[in-house]
Amino acid sequence: MDRQILKDKVIILIGASGGLGKVFAEEFAAEGAVVVMTGRNKAKLKEAAKEIEAKGGEVFPLVADFKKKEDAPRVCQTVLEKYGKFDALVTNASRTGDCVSIEVCDDDYIDDIIDTDVKGLLRYNREAMKHFLERDDGIILNIGSNNIGRPICDAVYCAAKYAEWGLTRQMAMRCVGTGVRCNLLNPGSFPSNTSVDVASGASHMYDAGEKVQASGILPVVNGSMVDIMKARTNRAVPVDLKQVAYAAIYLISDLAKNVNGQMFTVDRGGYM
After folding, report:
1. What is the pLDDT of residue 98?
2. Which residues are within 8 A (CB) of 81 and not within 5 positions of it... i.e. 6 or more apart?
3. d(CA 238, CA 190)
4. What is the rounded average pLDDT of the residues 173-188?
């Protein structure tokens, strides 16, 4: 039977202008959702929205920066004024680590990752939770990382991702017995501007790590951070982003009404 399992749902999707976020937006729209797409780059966001609309999807692009404290309440309030509700929040924005060893990373680097991956996440989750608890209905799906449980990236990024999992679990526990649920989805490896490109071997993180190592301030103890990361990602295999999107669709749909406080991984077993 052909059906749209997200029909009539309004979904706020953070980080939707490219990569995995754009695939999420395409697949959510194909399942009948109204997708509120956010991103920092206005031109890129507008182009992504146009492509989805051309296929018959309903989207609403909103320029917003995950890191800016004023943007979380503004985005949620704008959506409420336009649609009267939203049914799910999917947080796909993140600042991936630069493969910097903890003993040499500076405060600016720590602040950059924590301000985005922890503070930004907290603000959007907070604003969504206000609306969901008032309605006694809603879903938060935080997009995590396989560094939770297998910390192959640098210490600051891993700390931020563990914080994301702790937040998701705490909110899920808070919502037991209500119509609100919170889960976390970990995608496997895929090419992006800020993550390992398993297929080609290219990596923003490797390049950054090699720069630090070349500067002479990254100590080599049982191999450099770069070497350690390369060794630990040898078994990783690229995932089909649509498969990750299908898992997200399940988790934000009524099919998963009894799924709360869970970590769901789509990585083809590459990080076992």
Report:
1. 64
2. none
3. 5
4. 95
User: What percent of the chain stands above pLDDT 70?
Assistant: 78
Q: Which of 172-176, 203-207, 259-263 has the lowest mean pLDDT?
A: 203-207
Say how far residue 194 (Cα) sits from the centre of its chain.
12
State whether the Cα torsion 82-85-87-91 is positive or negative: positive
Check whether 187 has a pLDDT greater than 50: yes
CA distance 168 to 189: 22
Beta bridge partners of 36: 12, 60
Task: Read off the pLDDT of each residue in 229-241 and give the average, rounded to a whole number.
Answer: 64
- State the Cα–Cα distance between residues 78 and 72, nearest whole angstrom: 10
- Other beta carbons less than 10 A from residue 54's beta carbon: 8
SS3 for 52-120, per residue?
HHHCCCEEEEEECCCCCCCHHHHHHHHHHHHHCCCCEEEECCCCCCCCCCCCCCCHHHHHHHHHHHHHH
Pairing of strands 88-91, 263-266: unpaired
Question: How high is the pLDDT of residue 199?
Answer: 39
198's CB contacts (< 8 A; 6+ apart) are: 189, 190, 191, 233, 236, 237, 238, 270
Tokens of 212: 């630090």
